[in-house]
Amino acid sequence: MQPTDTAAWKALTTLAAERQLTLRDLFADDPERGQKYAAEGAGWYLDYSKQRLDRAILNALLDLARECGVEERRDAMLRGEKINVTEGRAVLHTALRAPRDADIRADGQNVVPQVHAVLDRMADFARQVRSGEWRGFTGEPIHAVVNIGIGGSDLGPVMAYEALEHYSDRNLTVRFVSNVDGSDFAEKVRDLDPASTLFIVSSKTFTTLETMTNAHTARRWLLDALGDEAAVARHFVAVSTNADEVRQFGIDTANMFEFWDWVGGRYSLDSAIGLSLTIAIGPEHFREFLDGMHDMDRHFASAPLEQNLPVLMALTGIWNQNFLGACSLAVLPYSQYLRSFPAYLQQLDMESNGKHVTLSGAEVGYDTGPIVWGQAGTNGQHAFYQLIHQGTRLIPCDFIGFARSLTPLPAGEGQTHQDLLMANVFAQSEALAFGKTPQQVRGDGVPETLVPHKTFAGNRPSSTLLARDLTPRSLGALIALYEHKVFVQGAVWDINSFDQWGVELGKVLAQRIAPELSGEQDLHHDSSTNALIRWYRRER
Ligand code: F6P
Hints:
This protein has 22 helices and 13 strands. It is α/β, with parallel strands linked by helices. The strands form three sheets. A six-stranded mixed β-sheet has the order 1-2-13-12-10-11, with helices on both faces.
């Protein structure tokens, strides 16, 4: 059954047509709305009162989740059932952050002991690198760690490393190379000493073109300097599910940190893919990060739907996308440390829910995943917020903020910055919701010709997520919150959020075209592609 066939979807369609709700009226009619449309879980406070919905709409959305079997599907995922039907795999990233004594089964086998065995090896290795016990080939301790990976093997580690930089060992340089554009590698290593550099080659499949190309270049760079194949063992470790490919590359599988096919790439930051992060912030902080994810997992698994943060965020998103006509979601973290969070979420959300067929392969008759974008505030305010406030499109926003600053500025200054930062969060969501009427504009003495220009229609929906401070634990909970939000939306839309066939075609075609660029063979593409390749051949 498609979601559009449910009674709740039909009720929501009627409600959307009948009720032209405005946030001004909703707040005027209920002075307690701000407290009523809020929920808490795993250290996060969610205010969704500035979404354009009332109790009837919220109840219908909750009915939709029930009718679409969100709870059953959630429980099936947590039990290790093979809900990734197109790849025949379980979806068990929640097992990666489960406590040591948990029992979570894939194919009848408890996976938690193997998860903790790898975590223990990661912790041990991280301690050796951080303490200087792990030596490079010439006896130097490691001063720089370079993660080579792309997609889920890069975006999560980069985002979390930046987010938790405050907790990182400042004696270590940590870099991330992802792009097959050679300038990425060249710029990231130009000031590094090969004798004290450790490469972590992170790839679930260990076949990804970008990562393998960069890994081979890194190996050449190292060997050019150190001149001995034996150096590879001291300067390269691998994170992968594919031991054969790791061996073939020349990395001793003793230096490989394993994960499993039931971990999707975009859900893998909490697996060994988090090795660079573990080295940077230390194993104790990494455990706190996993504990934060687990806090949110427990909240997601047990909180009633009407108080369940991922469910509420998913359902308000569905209301905005499927009934109010929005097609994107702006994610606006008011934290410079979270500057890469929107980029990370782009993969998490868009690779998961950018799907056009249901689980059974039928064409969907409704919109699925939104376009996710955003930037850290307040910077974004001076770039694209104009369009959110006064443009013609409806752009729902997620604001994210913290009560406390981590910043060691001169005495007292840190919290001043934080107050100004947070004043902007509250001001933006207030302005988006309530705008400024022509009467108010006139009341400011604005000349009549400028009144339309200075009028803000308002009624633009947003949610606000707040936590006390940015810690490994609160970051972990935030990431798990979005993972589960994406899951709930996928469950309602009846799509497979855990495959990514759409990325494959471009990969296959690139492999075919690569040798044609340096050759002279006849070209058999369309006339545009042929002309582009000929141009490149001439100019390269
Ligand atoms: O972009 C497609 C994709 O398969 C992602 O899902 C994945 O995170 C990324 O490529 C990298 O894959 P791998 O970790 O196997 O190198």
